[in-house]
Amino acid sequence: MLNDTITHAERELYLTLLELAQQQPSAYEWLTQLPIWLSDIKDKANYAHAPAYQASVARLPTLAVDNVDLDSNILTINARLNQSQHKQTTALLKQLMPWRKGPFQIGGQVDSGQDEGQQAAPIFIDTEWHSDWKWQRVAPHLGNLKGRRVLDVGGGSGYHGWRMAGTGADTVIIIDPSCLFYHQFMAIRHFVGSADTHETGRYRTHYIPVPLEALPEHSQLFDTVFSMGVLYHRLSPFEHLQQLKGQLVKGGELVLETLVIEGDANTVLVPHDRYAQMNNVYFLPSVAALIGWLEKAGFSDVRCVDVAVTSIEEQRKTEWMTYHSLADFLDPNDSTKTIEGYPAPMRATLIAKK
Ligand SMILES: Nc1ncnc2c1ncn2[C@@H]1O[C@H](C[S@+](CC[C@H]([NH3+])C(=O)[O-])CC(=O)[O-])[C@@H](O)[C@H]1O
């Protein structure tokens, strides 16, 4: 129910789903569940850090934003920032560390204008991942997202979701169960503000803090569904593919990006214990096997558009993510292997039709 304590982001999400429901009744089921999804993320019993994250986002200052370029590799909020706003904003954003997916920049170039003494340098959130590099590998193969309704499953901080809106998507819904990433999205959204309403006159980019499995199964709401960096975390890859398919309209497009290994249609690696130190990695197929999985799950026109080995320049420790990163997870004597002896991370992007 709409009530007084609802945030602006929540209100816009309700309105978007309400509008969707007028065209596609399955969105009513989302509306029914939304209060539960949104209150769970605020519950200290589920997420001990939730109140602290919320407080950090709530205390972010209001800046004079000149413009926002959602289609830039460093997702840039051009705003005027004085020294005290710079200090306050940096400190609050650092309370939302680790920042893994980005990069973002808040602030503009310091020019030699009249208030030079006052104006602070931009804040550059140098994230662990160069998510822009992934986007550059994927975007050329997407065709036009203009006017499309898009779901980004496992969207992290929302970096790619913003880029989807930046290329003209009509509506973007990001889902991810991470409480931290949800609040990172809300922090960036605070600064993006009404720039997100560009072209459509209403807010286009939304975030629901739930896993894919929590969504109503056969919503058929989206023209494009992205699942990037999620499949290998799933115990049952076929269930994941079915759930993705259930969110697509007939003829809609799936963009699937996941870890792969070299090999033929019968090659699949199931790491016995950890993979690159991650303890939640299950199935790493070859590209040929993955094409077979997508076809078995009922997708057609399946094509692999990109394969890339992840470099230690793309995923690395930064000032905004100070824990171990890829370089620490590879064999120090042979960077083609993980420290467990498996092939080093290589990722493929596949596109398929429902
Ligand atoms: N069942 C689930 N449903 C939805 N999200 C999930 C689920 N399980 C985990 N996640 C979320 O999926 C994301 C995986 S990261 C990819 C981010 C971005 N897409 C990227 O392509 O850079 C992995 C990577 O960095 O490789 C995390 O944010 C999880 O919380």
From TrEMBL:
Annotated Pfam families: Methyltransf_9
Catalysed transformations (reactions): carboxy-S-adenosyl-L-methionine + 5-hydroxyuridine(34) in tRNA = 5-carboxymethoxyuridine(34) in tRNA + S-adenosyl-L-homocysteine + H(+)
GO molecular function: methyltransferase activity; transferase activity, transferring alkyl or aryl (other than methyl) groups
Domain of life (superkingdom): Bacteria
Keyword Ion transport belongs to the record: no
UniProt keyword terms in alphabetical order: Transferase, tRNA processing
Signal peptide segment: none
Binding site for carboxy-S-adenosyl-L-methionine: K101, W129, K134, G154, D176, P177, S178, L212, E213, M228, Y232, R347
EC number: 2.5.1.-
Stored NCBIfam families: PRK15068.1, tRNA 5-methoxyuridine(34)/uridine 5-oxyacetic acid(34) synthase CmoB
UniProt function note: Catalyzes carboxymethyl transfer from carboxy-S-adenosyl-L-methionine (Cx-SAM) to 5-hydroxyuridine (ho5U) to form 5-carboxymethoxyuridine (cmo5U) at position 34 in tRNAs.
Family of the protein in this entry: Belongs to the class I-like SAM-binding methyltransferase superfamily. CmoB family.
PANTHER family per the UniProt record, alphabetical: METHYLTRANSFERASE, TRNA U34 CARBOXYMETHYLTRANSFERASE
Protein name (Swiss-Prot/TrEMBL): tRNA U34 carboxymethyltransferase
Source species of the chain: Psychrobacter aquaticus CMS 56
Gene field: cmoB
